[in-house]
From TrEMBL:
It comes from Alteribacter lacisalsi. Its EC number is 3.2.1.55. It catalyses: Hydrolysis of terminal non-reducing alpha-L-arabinofuranoside residues in alpha-L-arabinosides. GO terms for biological process: L-arabinose metabolic process; polysaccharide catabolic process. Pathway: Glycan metabolism. Pfam families: Alpha-L-AF_C, ASD1_dom. This is non-reducing end alpha-L-arabinofuranosidase. Keywords: Carbohydrate metabolism, Glycosidase, Hydrolase. Homohexamer; trimer of dimers. SMART domains: Alpha-L-AF_C. Belongs to the glycosyl hydrolase 51 family. The keyword Transferase does not apply. One of its GO terms (molecular function) is alpha-L-arabinofuranosidase activity.
């Protein structure tokens, strides 16, 4: 099979906001306790953070991490997590039915983020709380001093403000599983008024209005239309969440499910632009895809969990080769929408549906999905170029006209680098992809990284890394045409300099 890709360096979709390579740490399962934080671990630093985890996260170059939830957010009192640790309460955490010890909170997490080179995307509880708790938290985090909450932070040992720029107004407030679930009207009003007060404390912050919990929600996309009617003036982004799973064990159909993602993104953009027109606004609402990943492997196991444990293993999906391919496809989709998607968070980062896994008291390792995420984050900086692709197509159970290949091209003018991300999602056939490189004379292929495995169900573990990239991808130049062989079911990164 053959696919052709036309590139034009003048046809720029947008500068890529590096925050599309963000991630997420929620207080649940072993994400915080036993994940990033394990003071008794022999490799813990002076604050109790695991140095091996800091190293694995740093290699991903995660620009922003959403915190502290997630579903847990909707009954969280941020005050429980600041001040002397021995005074912090142990509480029933209702969303995941565990005990929250509060040994990590806002200040410690800001420190952790600094250690891995990330910004914090802070979320405020709009389930059980509202305007007051949210504006106090902004004052605590961002006000320099001379006020009650900012001075309290200083007495807690943080003289300088954290200067957190990005704030989420609640989490999945349409979900029946959410503590304090709201109707669109209720949420829209509360979010608008909360956001107003927060920006009054610190006008430099940016706000994310809560979108639907997923495109499958019965209220989607009416939720977006109603809530944004209230929050359009105060918010800068609307959130999108979507999780995927190969529940029917139909891998071809599963790998085509970025088609659905594409449709979801288009719909949210349409609703935003409808509101822009309705309000005669000059502002274009941007998208924050602040929860996305594969999540299904652990569902059954999680049903059996005894409640009220401290940091039990929850949502510990073990990812395989096909999951890594889908993750690559999702990242390509985001890059092709770089003009509207300005933030995105792989949910999550450590242990809980995560690219990084730790053993309590032991080592840590990389899941299959670590690799496409790292490749995109490290090499996908610059501008996203418009590509015109002619690719053969196939049909699956749920999707028609699925292109065999999916591709995004990033040009980093400063570094004089072009990176091609290419996915062949067909399970049987290789594709020869031809890229017209006439706009990039003198550029040569530096490396062609490939992630592939004969067994789509191959996974990694502490003992064995079965799925990892190799550097032996095949390519050749025919004058200005770059020919790249993209093997069946493979993720490819072609780096030119
Ligand atoms: O990431 C796991 C959960 O998925 C989050 O807590 C919630 O926001 C979503 O439903």
């Amino acid at each position: 099979k053959q696919a052709n890709v036309l590139l034009d360096k003048g046809a720029v979709i947008s500068e890529i906001d590096k925050r599309i390579y963000g991630s997420f740490i929620e207080h649940m399962g072993r994400a915080v306790y036993g994940g990033i934080y394990e003071p008794d671990h022999e490799g813990a630093d002076e604050q109790g953070f695991r140095k091996d985890v800091i190293s694995l996260v740093s290699q991903l170059q995660v620009p922003i991490i959403r915190y502290p939830g997630g579903n847990m957010l909707s009954a969280y009192n941020w005050e429980d997590g600041v001040g002397p640790k021995h005074e912090r309460p142990r509480k029933l955490e209702l969303a995941w039915r565990v005990i929250e010890t509060n040994q990590v909170g806002t200040n410690e997490f800001a420190d952790f983020a600094g250690k891995v080179g990330s910004e914090v995307m802070m979320a405020v509880n709009l389930g059980t709380r509202g305007i007051d708790a949210a504006r106090n938290l902004v004052e605590y985090c961002n006000h320099p001093g001379g006020s009650y909450w900012s001075d309290l932070r200083r007495t807690h040992g943080y003289e300088r403000p954290h200067q957190i720029k990005t704030w989420c107004l609640g989490n999945e407030m349409d979900g029946h599983w959410q503590i304090g679930q709201k109707t669109a009207e209720e949420y829209g009003r509360l979010a608008a008024e909360t956001g107003k007060a927060m920006k009054q404390v610190d006008p430099s912050i940016e706000l994310v209005s809560c979108g639907s919990s997923g495109s499958g929600m019965p209220t989607f996309p009416e939720w977006e239309a109603v809530t944004l009617d209230h929050t359009y003036g105060i918010a800068d982004y609307v959130s999108l969440h979507q999780y995927f799973g190969n529940r029917d064990n139909d891998s071809q159909n599963y790998l085509a499910s970025t088609m659905e993602l594409e449709h979801f993104i288009h719909t949210v953009i349409s609703v935003c632009d409808y509101l822009k027109a309705k309000k005669r606004s000059k502002k274009t609402m941007m998208l924050s895809f602040d929860e996305w990943n594969v999540w299904y492997h652990s569902n059954e196991q999680d049903q059996k969990l005894e409640p009220w444990q401290t940091a039990p293993p929850q949502l510990e999906d073990r990812y395989n080769m096909e999951d890594a391919l889908l993750v690559g496809g999702i990242l390509i989709t985001f890059l092709r929408h770089a003009d509207r998607i300005k933030m995105a968070c792989l949910a999550q980062l450590v242990n809980v549906i995560a690219p990084i896994v730790t053993e309590n008291g032991g080592g840590s390792w990389k899941q299959t999905i670590y690799y496409p995420y790292m490749h995109a984050s490290v090499f996908g900086r610059g501008v996203s170029l418009q590509v015109i692709v002619s690719s053969p197509k196939f049909d699956t159970k749920d999707f028609t006209d699925v292109p065999y290949t999916d591709t995004a091209v990033v040009w980093n003018e400063g570094k004089e680098e072009v990176t091609i991300f290419a996915l062949n999602r067909h399970l049987e056939e290789d594709v020869l992809m031809t890229f017209s490189m006439k706009d990039f004379p003198g550029y040569e292929v530096n490396e062609h990284l490939v992630l592939e495995h004969d067994d789509l169900k191959a996974a990694n573990s502490m003992r064995e890394e079965r799925v990892k990239p190799h550097n032996n991808g095949q390519w050749s130049f025919q004058r200005t045409e770059l020919e790249v062989k993209v093997n069946k079911a493979s993720w490819n990164v072609i780096r030119l300099k």
